[in-house]
Amino acid sequence: MEIFSKNPPxxxxxxxxxxxxxxxxxxxxxxxxDNIDGMRFQHMFATYFILKKINPSFVIxxxxxxxxxxxxxxxxxPNSKVLSIDIDLNQRVYISKKAKYSSVDFKDxxxxxxxEDTLVFFDDHVNHLKRVQxxxxxxxxxxxK
Length: 145
Prior knowledge:
Elements: H1 13-27, H2 41-54, E1 58-62, H3 68-76, E2 81-85, E3 100-102, E4 119-122, H4 128-137, E5 142-144
Helix pairs in contact: 1-2, 2-3
C-alpha cells in the first residue's frame, strides 16, 4: 500500500521566473535583514512560491524562531488565517498582529475542524517522519517541510 503519492509540479519555468520577480520586491521589505540560522532568500522564495500556488485559507506554522516565516506567510497570503506555533515564543523579533500564537506543540493541538485546504509549514526541527504522520492524522494534505 502506498502511503504517499508524488505528483509532478503544475508550473512552468516562466511562472517561476515571474514569481521570482514579484518575490524580490517583498523580500526587500523583510523585517529581519540578517536572519542567521533562519530563513534566507532561497528558502523564503520556495515557501513563497508554494504558498502562492496552493493558496490555503489556513496556515499552521510550526517553528517560528525569530518570526521571518510568519511575516512571509502573512505577506504572501494576506487573507489567510495563520496559527504560529513554537514551544519557545521568546525568540521572536517579528511579532504579527494578525497571526495567533501558541506554545503548545503541533501534535497536542486539536485540528479536527480545520479547512480542507489547510497547509502546515514544519520548520521546527522535529523528526520529519513523525511530523508528516501527525499531519496525516489530522488529514492535512498540504505540507512544507
